Description:
Blueprint: E1 17-24, E2 29-36, E3 47-54, E4 57-59, E5 63-72, E6 78-84, H1 86-91, E7 92-93, E8 97-99, E9 102-103, E10 113-118, E11 123-132, E12 139-142, E13 145-152, E14 155-162, E15 166-171, E16 175-181, E17 193-201, E18 207-212, E19 220-222, E20 228-229, E21 232-233, E22 243-248, E23 253-262
Parallel strand pairs: 4-15
Antiparallel strand pairs: 1-2, 3-5, 5-11, 6-10, 6-13, 7-11, 8-9, 8-11, 12-15, 13-14, 16-17, 17-23, 18-22, 19-23, 20-21, 20-23
Amino acid sequence: xxxxxxxxxxxxxYTAAVxxxxxxxxxxxxGTVSHVSNPVVVHxxxxxxxxxxxPACARRGEFVTYTIVICNESDLPIxxxxxxxxxxxxxxxxxxxxxxxxxxxxxxxxKGIFIGTLPPGGRSVVTFxxxxxxxxxxxxxxxxxxxxxxxxxxxxxxxxxxxNPAELVIIRPGVHIWKTADREVLTADDHPVRYHLRxxxxxxxxxxxxxxxxxxxxxxxxxPGSTQIDNGSSAHIDPMNGIFLxxxxxxxxxxxxxxxxxxxxxx
Length: 267
């Protein structure tokens, strides 16, 4: 019997390998046999887009800065790379767009900012300052889209990826107060008049240190101990000196009532 033969090819990238042991009875001959396949390369296309906004909260009339970072984490170059950000373009005035630090005079986020080719490991950054239009919603969540092409064995193909959604809150503080009285005319012989105040946080952020003050006609005076807040007695709170409500959450409403009488009227 011929002596056994062992195939001991070295292992190379992108190859598969197999090995096994054998024993030939009754001759007591044994050994190991192995083989390495041909290399097969499978290219991975992995494009990552990240979108951020600074600051994440702003008042109307204040600029914010958006940054979109595109990274080609593929092992092939990508071509015809373009960034489209229609939502941001719709809600903001954008006076200047910068690509890798250079101004893009004719840049249009609706049509797309053309980047060109990114090699494997390549990175490009688009930044722009944005001023919210009057109609911008209180919370804007927007993502950018990156489109690209790549070459494979079957030719050129197209691909796209969305960035993470970037969230921006447009701060619109607001508060409203309504005042009513249970009578329009009062004499010294009448019972005290009841005033009713309704306070509401009409903005999209909580309010702190909320204070309500009220004034009375010079012929009238506050009836001590008559103030009530949300039907709870608050005997020592004079509305003319200020009623401290503290924190008022978004859409929270507080009801206040108190009595006043004509000066010099019977106690």
